[in-house]
């Protein structure tokens, strides 16, 4: 069992994922100071009920630890930080003794070694979808396509798809995070990427048609 501070947010963080945060509430400034001083992570957890600011929010049970890699202090004691996702955890019980929320958690591991069951066809399909989605996403931003730097490790690959997802609801991302099988996460990622690709295609088409109408 491990005790960690919690940062309930309206976002889902995955292992190896990067998250920028603007920290302005006193309770979270206190939490970040604690993490920096103790060189410990905090847990990013999706909010089930409530809001990020103000009253306490009710979180989901599964989240991801985040290691702080960059801190910038600005006026009024506010902070801009960047953290990187690390380990997936499940809350065993919440602790409300400090200014910020804490929890006793257990770290989750895949319940099966699925590498032998994962075909090259599945991996090829997933990497192709990631590349296409990444290209479409950069196109919407008006940026040139660059190498997606797709991981070769299957565990990391199973959490990589959200880096280029735009249209997927948090509840679907939470479902992906909570899946304890690498193979099932890869299958789910393919489904989400197909859905996301259709959404990005429609956005680009609308933008293209809007551009044509403005020129006429």
Order of helices and strands: EEHEEEEHHHH
Q: Characterize the main sheet.
A: 5 strands, mixed, barrel
Secondary structure: number of strands: 6
Fraction of residues in H or I helices: 25-40%
The helix tally amounts to 5
| CATH class placement of the largest domain | Mainly Beta
What sort of overall outline do the alpha carbons produce when their principal axes are compared?
globular
Spans where pLDDT lies below 50 across 5 or more residues: none
What proportion of the residues form beta strands (DSSP E)?
Answer: 25-35%
Q: End-to-end distance, in Å?
A: 65 Å
Q: What integer is the average pLDDT? A: 88
The largest sheet has its strands arranged as 1-3-4-5-6
CATH fold topology of the largest domain? Archaeosine Trna-guanine Transglycosylase, Chain: A, domain 4
Structural class, please? alpha+beta
Rg, nearest Å: 19 Å
Please name the CATH architecture of the largest domain. Answer: Roll
Give the total of domains: 2
Fourth-level CATH superfamily of the largest domain: LON domain-like
């Amino acid at each position: 069992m491990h005790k960690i501070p919690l940062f309930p947010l309206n976002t889902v963080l995955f292992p190896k994922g990067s998250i920028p945060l603007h920290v302005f509430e006193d309770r979270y400034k206190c939490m970040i100071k604690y993490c920096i001083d103790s060189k410990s992570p905090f847990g990013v957890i999706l909010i089930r009920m409530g809001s990020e600011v103000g009253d306490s929010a009710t979180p989901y049970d599964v989240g991801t630890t985040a290691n702080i890699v960059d801190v910038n202090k600005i006026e009024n004691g506010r902070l801009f930080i960047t953290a990187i996702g690390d380990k997936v955890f499940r809350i065993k019980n919440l602790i409300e003794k400090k200014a910020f929320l804490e929890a006793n958690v257990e770290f989750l591991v895949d319940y099966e070694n699925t590498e032998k069951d994962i075909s090259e066809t599945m991996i090829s399909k997933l990497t192709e979808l990631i590349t296409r989605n990444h290209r479409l996403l950069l196109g919407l931003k008006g940026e040139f396509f660059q190498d997606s730097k797709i991981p070769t490790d299957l565990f990391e690959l199973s959490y990589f798809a959200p880096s280029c997802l735009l249209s997927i609801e948090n509840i679907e991302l939470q479902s992906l995070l909570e899946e304890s099988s690498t193979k099932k996460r890869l299958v789910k990622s393919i489904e989400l990427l197909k859905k996301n690709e259709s959404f990005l295609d429609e956005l680009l088409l609308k933008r293209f048609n809007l551009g044509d109408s403005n020129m006429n």
